[in-house]
From TrEMBL:
<protein>
    <submittedName>
        <fullName>Metallophosphoesterase family protein</fullName>
    </submittedName>
</protein>
<keyword id="KW-0997">Cell inner membrane</keyword>
<keyword id="KW-1003">Cell membrane</keyword>
<dbReference type="InterPro" id="IPR029052">
    <property type="entry name" value="Metallo-depent_PP-like"/>
</dbReference>
<keyword id="KW-0479">Metal-binding</keyword>
<dbReference type="InterPro" id="IPR043461">
    <property type="entry name" value="LpxH-like"/>
</dbReference>
<keyword id="KW-0472">Membrane</keyword>
<dbReference type="Pfam" id="PF00149">
    <property type="entry name" value="Metallophos"/>
</dbReference>
<feature type="domain" description="Calcineurin-like phosphoesterase">
    <location>
        <begin position="33"/>
        <end position="240"/>
    </location>
</feature>
<dbReference type="InterPro" id="IPR004843">
    <property type="entry name" value="Calcineurin-like_PHP"/>
</dbReference>
<keyword id="KW-0464">Manganese</keyword>
Length: 309
């Protein structure tokens, strides 16, 4: 490993340790149902809106999780706020999704974590300014949306059944361009790559990130889990990862902007699974939003408890 790679790995470790230190702890047990999604990149409904093709799939998945008593955790980059300035416009374009989010929030079953593309949500008062309420066309009045919501940088899911804990963070921490220099990256995306996307190019800070760049990020996150002996669930790379107990402690929920599906992580009965949602045609030729288990379920107890400081 080169000195530069060592420095990058050390930077990731220091940043994630800081996030962990200040993270909100949420208890869960065998009765808890949790679903973790990341990298929706909801946009303004134009050609650069990568979420647009999957909004129906995502809505179907959220409806399923709401009806079945899941708590929804959005693991960063929920909204594309590098390309777009106004979250209120995004909420209007994807009003069905935000309506579902408000239903989760009303029942205290919603946690939101910010990533690099929606890092402005950490600013005090930002969410209250943009997501406090919305105008309902049918009743012609403003109704509560996500009033008073606090968007976090990290979250700790702490088991009450003795199976340890899970650390949740978007995963951009320690990345020079996407963390330290994020204002520069946002400038490039907003004024250069957004226009390139309109003619077919992919943004290299998002789904168009080169494979080797994604692998470098993953290696640093994997290294962190080994050094700390801590289960980490992240997003950021858009690549779903499910580690078996003998393989490691790193998981990735994938993204909601894959051309054919969305992926997420479920935790239920103290077991973890990797899930895919997609639109499929049945024998009657009717299109349906369907859930498919890609990996798991695997007992969280089989990964052991966090032991390293």
């Amino acid at each position: 490993m080169t000195s530069l790679q060592c420095a990058s790995t050390r930077s990731v470790r220091l940043k994630l340790d800081k996030v962990y230190e200040h993270a909100k702890a949420v208890p869960f047990d065998s009765q808890s149902r949790l679903v973790i999604m990341s990298d929706c990149h909801r946009g303004q409904g134009n050609a650069a809106d990568n979420f647009l093709a999957n909004q129906v799939v995502c809505f179907g998945a959220l409806e399923y999780y709401y009806q079945n008593g899941f708590t929804y955790i959005e693991l960063g980059d929920g909204d594309e706020l590098w390309e777009n300035r106004q979250l209120k416009i995004i909420a209007e374009v994807h009003s069905d999704i935000f309506w579902m989010l408000s239903k989760f929030y009303e029942q205290k079953r919603l946690y939101m974590i910010y990533g690099n593309h929606d890092i402005v949500k950490r600013r005090k008062g930002y969410m209250n300014e943009h997501c406090n309420c919305y105008y309902c066309e049918s009743s012609r009045r403003e109704l509560p949306l996500l009033p008073g919501i606090n968007v976090l940088e990290g979250l700790i899911l702490r088991s009450e059944d003795g199976t340890g804990e899970l650390f949740l963070a978007h995963g951009h921490q320690g990345d020079l361009l996407n963390d330290t220099l994020w204002p520069l990256a946002r400038f490039l995306v907003r004024y250069f790559w957004k226009r390139m996307e309109l003619i077919g190019f992919l943004d290299p800070t998002g789904s168009g990130r080169p494979r080797k760049a994604k692998e470098r990020v993953e290696k640093r996150l994997v290294s962190y889990t080994k050094e700390r002996g801590r289960i980490l669930i992240a997003g950021h790379t858009h690549r779903p990862v499910f580690s078996q107990p003998e393989e490691g402690l790193y998981f990735n929920s994938g993204s909601c902007v894959h051309p054919r599906c969305i992926t997420c992580i479920e935790i239920e009965n103290n077991e973890i699974s990797l899930i895919k949602w997609s639109v499929r045609a049945g024998e009657d030729r009717k299109l349906k939003v369907e859930r498919e288990v890609l990996e798991g379920p695997v007992s969280l107890a089989s990964y052991g408890r966090s032991e390293k400081p």
